[in-house]
Specification:
single chain; mainly alpha; 4 helices
Length: 95
């Protein structure tokens, strides 16, 4: 039975995804959809996600401008998480 236990453990490790904050995950999802060829049809949704990430967005701002700022904010958020993870690893954190 140790082989079965090892297999279950390996499967659980492979299924794990890094957990992102909800607003950052929403921003990543929107950007991935746009990069895959989707068009942002709902400007209010884009503005809401941008506001959740801490951006000030004018309702009159063009969607393209908001998307560029959203893309930059998501990049900064992911970079910050990566830096936190690297710092916790060097300080002896478990991950």
């Amino acid at each position: 039975m140790p082989a079965a236990r090892l297999l279950r453990t390996l499967k659980s490790w492979l299924r794990r995804k890094p957990k992102l904050p909800r607003e950052l995950q929403a921003g990543c999802d929107v950007i991935e959809a746009i990069d895959a060829g989707g068009l942002p049809l709902d400007a209010t949704r884009i503005n809401r996600i941008a506001r959740e990430l801490g951006l000030e967005v004018s309702p009159k701002a063009p969607v393209e401008q908001t998307l560029a700022r959203l893309r930059a904010a998501v990049g900064r958020g992911l970079e910050g998480l990566a830096m936190q993870e690297a710092a916790s690893r060097t300080k002896g954190g478990k991950k």
